[in-house]
Amino acid sequence: GCAIVKDSFEDLFYDYAKVDFAEMNDDEINQYIKSKEPFDKAGAYGIQGIGAKFIKKIEGDYYSVMGMPVHKLYHKLKNL
To answer: Are strands 17-21 and 9-13 parallel, antiparallel or unpaired?
Structure first.
């Protein structure tokens, strides 16, 4: 989610994405844990990191998964 706030102006908005992971075998899970990538990520994966190889499909905005709906934010700011 995002907020654009200045003085009395406020615009709150969000975007979302559904991420489908492939099934992982025990070796893949253990290797991923050993990489330490899942320990500092919301959802325990980095879509732009090692976790990317386990992603089968994304429905929605890729950048929302990374943390901010860049396209939506750009258009909101452009139209101010």
So the answer is: unpaired
Percentages helix, strand, coil for the chain, rounded to the nearest 5?
45, 25, 30
Using an 8 Å Cβ cutoff, are 24 and 54 in contact? yes
* Whether the model pTM is above 0.90: no
Tell me which H or E stretch contains 77. Answer: helix 70-78
In the structure encoding, which two tokens stand for residue 2, read together? 């995002």
**Amino acid present at 24:** M
pLDDT band at 40 (very low <50, low <70, confident <90, very high): confident
Report the alpha-carbon distance of residue 10 to residue 25 in Å, rounded: 46
